[in-house]
Each structure stands twice: as structure tokens, then as C-alpha cells.
């Protein structure tokens, strides 16, 4: 939940719909490439869950208040994010994140 909230916040704060796809890809690639191989694999494994959490936060945050609080977050403090900004980031991450190899 924390990772999903962080990505939603970043997508909104950087107003990704005002950026080109290449710029979003560059920003994500720089971040991802800076991770060591174990962290890259961990992100790839977690990405489907992160994506589901982010989509749920956008569509039904109220019903997730228990999970949000369990993650140490305050539902009232979670940033909003437009669906368009999230879609711009989600599409890039979907394309650029390799599928988890399941080696762990």
C-alpha cells in the first residue's frame, strides 16, 4: 500500500500527463536501473500488487481504510491522483518492468 501511495503521489506531483512518454520512460528507467538486481527483482515481483493497490486507492479508497492504516498511513493524508496521471505512469511501468522470474 505504501509503494502504491508513493507512486500515485509522484505521478500527481509531477503531472505526468504534461510529460512526454519518453520523459516518463527516462525517469522510470533511471530509478529502476539504479536499483541493485535483488531490488529490481523484488519490484518486478511486487509490481502487480502495487498496481492493484494503486488502482484500488483511486477507485475505492474508503473501503481500504483498514489496509491503509495497517500500512502506517492516514487515509486522510493520502494524496489524490488523477486517473490520467496514474495511467501515464502505469503504462510505462507495465512496458518497462520485466516479468518477475520467480527465483526467490
Q: How does this model look, in words?
A:
The protein contains five helices and no strands. Helices cover 67% and strands 0% of the residues. The protein has helices spanning 2-13, 21-34, 37-60, 65-70, 83-96. It has one domain (2-96). It has 104 residues and is mostly helical. It is globular. It starts with a helix and ends in an 8-residue tail after the last helix. The model has no long low-confidence stretch (mean pLDDT 89).
- Which bin fits the share of residues in helices? 55-70%
Contiguous low-pLDDT stretches (5 residues minimum) are: none
| Count of helix runs | 5
How do the SSEs run, as a string of H and E? Answer: HHHHH
Q: Look at the structure and give the mean pLDDT.
A: 89
Question: What is the number of domains?
Answer: 1
How many strands? 0
Radius of gyration: 14 Å
Shape: globular
The first-to-last residue Cα distance is 21 Å
Strand content: under 5%
Biggest sheet layout = none
Structural class, from secondary structure content? mainly alpha
In short:
The chain is mainly α. Helices cover 67% and strands 0% of the residues.
Key words describing this protein structure:
104 residues; mainly alpha; globular; 67% helix
Secondary-structure map:
Blueprint: H1 2-13, H2 21-34, H3 37-60, H4 65-70, H5 83-96
Amino acid at each position: 500500500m505504501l509503494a502504491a501511495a508513493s507512486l500515485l503521489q509522484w505521478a500527481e506531483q509531477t503531472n505526468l500527463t504534461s510529460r512526454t512518454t519518453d520523459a516518463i520512460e527516462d525517469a522510470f528507467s533511471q530509478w529502476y536501473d539504479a536499483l541493485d538486481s535483488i531490488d529490481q527483482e523484488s519490484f518486478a515481483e511486487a509490481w502487480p500488487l502495487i498496481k492493484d493497490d494503486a488502482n484500488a486507492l483511486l477507485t475505492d479508497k474508503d473501503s481500504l481504510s483498514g489496509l491503509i492504516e495497517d500500512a502506517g498511513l492516514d487515509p486522510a493524508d493520502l494524496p489524490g491522483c488523477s486517473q490520467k496521471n496514474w495511467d501515464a505512469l502505469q503504462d510505462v511501468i507495465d512496458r518497462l518492468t520485466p516479468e518477475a522470474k520467480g527465483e526467490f
